[in-house]
Amino acid sequence: MSASMFNDKFLEHALVHDEERLIxxxxxxxxxxxxxxxxxxIMHDTAIQQIIALGVSALELQPLDLGWVLTNQQLWIYxxxxxxxxxxxxxxxxxxxxxxxxxxxxxxxxxxxxxxxxTTTWILMNIKERKIAPFPTFIQTLLERSTELPHLERARQxxxxxxxxxxxxxxxxxxxxxxxxxxxxxxxFFKWMLDALPLDFLSSRTLGSFNVKxxxxxxxxxxxxxxxxxNEREILHQLRKGEEVxxxxxxxxx
Length: 254
Description:
The chain is an alpha+beta fold and 254 residues long. It has 2 domains: 8-146, Thiol Ester Dehydrase, Chain A (Roll); 167-253, Hotdog Thioesterase (Thiol Ester Dehydrase, Chain A, Roll). The protein is built from 6 helices and 11 strands. It is globular.
C-alpha cells in the first residue's frame, strides 16, 4: 500500500502524532518479525505518548473519576517489520459519534509504505459509577477538531455465538499483566485469543486482519478461557471469564 496520504499538510496537523520505533528482540516472535501482540502494544504505546501531550491522559482524567475504555479494534496487517528495523508510527484521534470516539494508527517502514494499520473505538467511563460518561468540554473541543482528519473504515463486527470451540486454552491473569489502571492490559486479550490456535496453524498461516470487540474487564487472578472456531481461513475467537464473554473476535488468514 502507498503512504501518499501522509503529506506535509496531514503530518503538520496539530492532532497527528508520529514517532520512530526500533523493533527490538522482545518485540519479535520465532520468525524474527514483530509479533501481532507487539504491533498492537506499540500502536497503543504511541497513542499514550500523544494523549499525555494533549492533556487527556489518565493523569488528567483520574481526578475527574474518568478513564478511557477500548471497546473495539480492527487491525489490518500487510507485512511485519523484522528485528532491527526502524519503523514510523502515526496516530491521531479520528472523529466522534455521541459517546464514541475513534483513533487510527499506521505503521510505516523506512520506505514509507504501510505495513499495518488499525482503527479503534473508545468510550469515556466514570470509573466510580462504572458507566459511560459524556465528554467534558475540553475533550469535546479536541474531538470536534479531529473530524477534520481522514479516517479509516470504522470497526464493525457481526453478531454470533461461538458453539463447540475447536481449540481452547486456560490462562490466569497475573500481577505483571496489569496496567496502570489496575486491570489486565488490552493487548493480552489479543495475545490470548491468538495463543488458543494450534502451533501448526500459526506456523503455516499469515494473519491478514483481526477485529476484536471488548465487552468486559479482567483483574489479577481472574481465570480466562480462550476459545476458537476454525472455518478454513476465517477464525472466530472468544474470551470467557466463567460464563461471562468478555471479548469476541474475527480473524482472516492466508
